[in-house]
Write a structure and sequence with these properties.
Strand order of the largest sheet: 1-2-5-4-3-6
Number of helices: 4
Number of domains: 2
Order of helices and strands: EEEEEHEEEHEEEHEH
CATH topology of the largest domain: Elongation Factor Tu (Ef-tu), domain 3
Radius of gyration: 16 Å
Structural class: mainly beta
InterPro entries: ATP_synth_asu-like_sf, Lumazine-bd, Lumazine-bd_dom, Riboflavin_synthase-like_b-brl
Helix content: 10-25%
Distance between the termini: 27 Å
GO molecular function, one term: riboflavin synthase activity
Number of strands: 12
Pathway: Cofactor biosynthesis; riboflavin biosynthesis; riboflavin from 2-hydroxy-3-oxobutyl phosphate and 5-amino-6-(D-ribitylamino)uracil: step 2/2
Protein name: Riboflavin synthase
Catalytic activity: 2 6,7-dimethyl-8-(1-D-ribityl)lumazine + H(+) = 5-amino-6-(D-ribitylamino)uracil + riboflavin
Largest sheet: 6 strands, antiparallel, barrel
Strand content: 35-45%
Length: about 190
Amino acid sequence: MFTGIIQKISTVKKIERFAGNVIVTIVKPKAWRLHSGESIAIDGICSTLQRVWAGSFSVSYMPETLKRASVSLWQRGDTLNLEKSLRLQDGLDGHIVAGHIDTTGRLVKVQTAKNSYRMSVTVPKRFARFIAPKGSITLDGVSLTVVDVTKNQFSVALIPYTLQHTNLGLKKREDILNVEVDIIAKYVDRLLKK
């Protein structure tokens, strides 16, 4: 489990394809101690570390993840958001994030003003019902508050800290983002259908 509070950003070092999977090697943050088998969120995707070296680590993504997330679009040199998994003694600063990507969204508009940065994102209609104004949403692993929702489009406002400490400040119109809707909304929806 994660919180959506990004701890580090890093870069893609290498991408390989093997037997339908994609193996991604990422530069390891200097102060991070990691070990094989550990789970971390990479751009919001709960990822098990396959191998860890002095300056990098690798993860493998299977076809199901490749279908739902933006991994197949990643390229060498891309900047990714990283978050270690939540420990019992940690605070829940963001919201409950499983690291299970529901879908991808397309960044359709970026509005900037003096001290304001707002992103509008479209998602498939079947996921829009889980998104509510003032509710939580995760974009590329970042916990955000929804500003407004219209049909299958929603917007979020980003503070300068988020723009400086995540990869969201690098995103431009038409970019694809990993989306995890609020897990509580999914459970409520499922219960109401019974």
